[in-house]
Amino acid sequence: MDLRTRYLGLDLRNPLVASASPLSNTVDGVQRLADAGVGAVVLYSLFEEQLRREAEQNARLAAAGTDSFAESLSYFPHTADADHGTRRYLSLLERAAAAVSVPVIGSINGSTPGSWAGYARSMQDSGAAAIELNIYYLPGDSHVSGRDVEQRHLDILGRVKEAVTVPVAVKLSPYFSATAEMARRLDLAGADGLVLFNRFLQPDIDAETLAVAPGTSLSRAGEARLPMTWIALLHGRIDASLAATTGVEGSKELIKYLLVGADVVMTASALLRHGPDYAAVMLDGLSRWMGRKEYTAVDDFRGLLAVPIGSDEVARERGDYVSALRRANSADFGPW
């Protein structure tokens, strides 16, 4: 089977990418992922807060609505030597890129424009084949408009694109008033790829200690439906590559995402649950499914179930919505 694919202009041996996670914290971890067969590896993220603290503790914030940033630093774990953390990251990136034959992608997690974006160039110089720009921003300020939020994303992308020549992918959330338009604007602004979607890691409440309980949980297959919907709508409508993430538990989700038009499918949860070697299991499942369906290459079926170009996207999604509710209404859910 020909599993080769292209993502961000890079030639990958297959469409399964190991997304940023603790598995890529070491060179050995990156090697294990590569040996298991993934097409590329995204390193764990450097955070804007780390980079800003290192570069300038008292910098004037570049974007409107970021006057709370100084306060936010108090919530970010302090490191005795932030610069050491950055040097360690770049050293890992350089050694990992030299140790494996698959592309290694650097990751920056940020929410405001600023000079920290220059660190993307350091990643490029250390061997990153591309940069994944993870924009995690929850606009809780009631005075910040939706257009301001959108412009913030474009400004961050612009700063990073100015700093590097390698491809840049933007990992964004689904919480825009017009997600398709935002995707188009990012595409026109130079994003080489879009990663759909960033998970909103909502905090929980501990009712006994009366405290907020932040934490993370691994994604489940049901969470794939939202990014799947948007990838199906965007496939063929923008030039940027489309990477699917969230809800990938096995080869079934890998196949579904490819059918709706994803160029690559990223997973961390499945590999954290089962170990890096599970990548080989997922790819074997993809190959066996292709054999049953008599496909010889991924491009033979990629986008087969995407929303056709020229169709009425709104009517299509509205129709799917109404059909789903009708089926639910007629289903027997047993006694209440």
UniProtKB/TrEMBL annotation:
Residues 3-290 form the Dihydroorotate dehydrogenase catalytic domain. One of its GO terms (biological process) is 'de novo' pyrimidine nucleobase biosynthetic process. The keyword Ribonucleoprotein does not apply. The keyword RNA-binding does not apply. It comes from the Bacteria. GO terms for molecular function: dihydroorotate dehydrogenase activity. Its cofactor is FMN. Pfam families: DHO_dh. Keywords: Flavoprotein, FMN, Oxidoreductase, Pyrimidine biosynthesis. GO terms for cellular component: cytoplasm. Pathway: Pyrimidine metabolism; UMP biosynthesis via de novo pathway. InterPro entries: Aldolase_TIM, DHO_dehydrogenase, Dihydroorotate_DH_1_2, Dihydroorotate_DH_cat. PANTHER family: DIHYDROOROTATE DEHYDROGENASE (QUINONE), MITOCHONDRIAL-RELATED, SLL0744 PROTEIN. This is Dihydroorotate dehydrogenase.
